[in-house]
Write a structure and sequence with these properties.
Number of domains: 2
Strand order of the largest sheet: 5-6-7-8-9-11-10
Shape: elongated
CATH class of the largest domain: Alpha Beta
Largest sheet: 7 strands, mixed
Number of helices: 14
Distance between the termini: 16 Å
Structural class: alpha+beta
CATH superfamily of the largest domain: Gcn5-related N-acetyltransferase (GNAT)
Helix content: 40-55%
Radius of gyration: 23 Å
Length: about 325
Amino acid sequence: MRRAYPGALLAAAALLAGGCGTGGKATVQGDQQNGAKLFTAKCGGCHTLAAAGTSGTIGPNLDDAFSGPKQQHFKESTLENVVLDQIREASAPMPANLVTGKDAVDVSAYVAAVAGAGGANVKPPSQLGNDGKAIFSSQCSSCHTLKAAGAAGTIGPNLDQLKPAFPIVVHQVTNIRRARPEDAAAIAAVHVRTWQAAYEHLFGAERLETIDLDARARQWERWLAAKEIAFVAEDAGRIVAFAWVGASMDALGVGELFAIYALPEAWGSGAGSGLMRSSLMALREEGFVEAVLWVLEDNPRARRFYEREGWSADGIRKRGEFVGVEVDEVRYRIDL
């Protein structure tokens, strides 16, 4: 579902009660049993819904969103049409056509019946113990397809097709996390050391040695304190790579990958790809439908990495200056 909040849903309910709406009312009776199965498989990883036992946070908390309308005694049929309208008119980060036709009606009927009406307490992943299937269903199912879990998400990779090796799965699940303010010094160290390793051919070792690590750490302290969106990859508890995203500074309404760097010993480990996936997901969650990045033109390793990850040069160039040297940059773009 697209981002919507209690007030917006309440207003939508009022409109639909009067026969308004963008997608039209449901014309057939929904099968709530089928709707429950579809919701868990396709929607639960993004939404909290107590009755379904899901605790996703990408989209609205549906119990919160519908508790007000239910307290004001809106008809269940009206709420069903609100949900159906949200599904039909999906916007990022919700993919279009997640459920369609009768399936969309079934999901709408189920959500309208149970959202905001109480139900089993939703347990966070930390309280699900070692039940990997329950954790996957709660947190991952709406993004990934995995037949064994009854999941059919399409935002992330189809895991049945990808068949990732166990070490890669462990790395992706446990080693990528959101950056915290206390990570500032470690991120700065990765930032500076990576520049010194990757850009010596452009700037020279002597110039790169002049980068002030302490000043870079203070800069990261400010950014992280300001809730900038950054992720880190860890290896044995040590930060070896990071990524930073947000609203583009030169393309209105577009997301931007500001930086993604990994220590040389982490090159080829999968850390970069993991950070890329987390970063693009974060931009989708912020409502962006496309993103850009800038890369030094004479950086073939980075450019190959971006192209493998689905980015394409869009023909825009600029000239910048780093450590006293003028260099050319090219812009890449990706649809989210």
